[in-house]
């Protein structure tokens, strides 16, 4: 029996896409994101992982190839139809993009006020519940500028999830945070899947986070998708660059050398 996911379970599919700003930074990328999983996109600075995420979120058309989301060709749709499709997703950017002059409650509730006709009292209750889910209970009236970096990241995640999207896309959600706060962000992402039933695509280079949250990881380097698989599979990968990343070995150590070192008596 085939283990291939059914088409209904594939909610994002990139077919031979190139992404970049005039000049490609990634080419010939083929990937799938399946319903209910957490997929991590990783690689060094400038490898194109955040650019790829922007293409998946509908912000940057691919230079070539096709992006399909929920069975639709994303960039072949009219603007209205594409926007309607993207309302089934939520995005949390590397810079949290909170409005500093607004309260946290107003920041989180903004998508509900802009895109729904729900009564204000219902919106306020939904905001309260979502802030509680991300560990910010009772902070509705605080200004965004008064929060710590970790709290701002949590508030941004609350806003990204407030419409109960089927897919949430996160760009470096734990970047710049200390390990304890970053671990809390990881647990929030896991809560989203458990409580909201959503799928997540997360850009990160934090190995601890990858090991905690990833069902699958996709590693990018040298303008291409270098490898993909579970953390266990990539930790045993034959390619030096992939193996070294997942086993914390400096790049200049070759695979033959790290195997020699591993078997040298101490």
Verbal overview:
The strands form two sheets. A six-stranded mixed sheet has the order 6-7-8-3-9-10, with helices on both faces. Strands 2-1-4-5 form a four-stranded antiparallel sheet, covered by helices on one side. With 266 residues, it is an alpha/beta fold. The chain folds into two domains: 7-88 and 167-235, P-loop containing nucleotide triphosphate hydrolases (Rossmann fold), CATH 3.40.50; 97-164, no CATH class. The chain is built from ten helices and ten strands. Helix 3 (104-115) packs across helix 4, helix 3 (104-115) runs parallel beside helix 5 (149-161) and helix 5 packs parallel to helix 6 (179-196). It is 38% helix and 24% strand.
Biggest beta sheet attributes: 6 strands, mixed
Shape: globular
SSE pattern, N- to C-terminal: EEEHEEHEHHHEHEHEEHHH
Q: Which secondary-structure class do the elements indicate? A: alpha/beta
Rounded to an integer in angstroms, the radius of gyration calculated over CA atoms is: 20 Å
Strand content: 15-25%
Q: Alpha-carbon distance between the termini?
A: 47 Å
Q: Give the tally of structural domains.
A: 2
CATH class of the largest domain: Alpha Beta
Return the CATH architecture of the largest domain: 3-Layer(aba) Sandwich
CATH homologous superfamily (4th level) name of the largest domain: P-loop containing nucleotide triphosphate hydrolases
Flag low-confidence runs: 252-266
With strands numbered from the N-terminus, the spatial order across the biggest sheet is 6-7-8-3-9-10
Nearest-integer average pLDDT: 89
Number of helices: 10
Q: Indicate the percent of residues in helices.
A: 25-40%
Which topology of the largest domain does CATH recognise?
Answer: Rossmann fold
* Strand segment count: 10
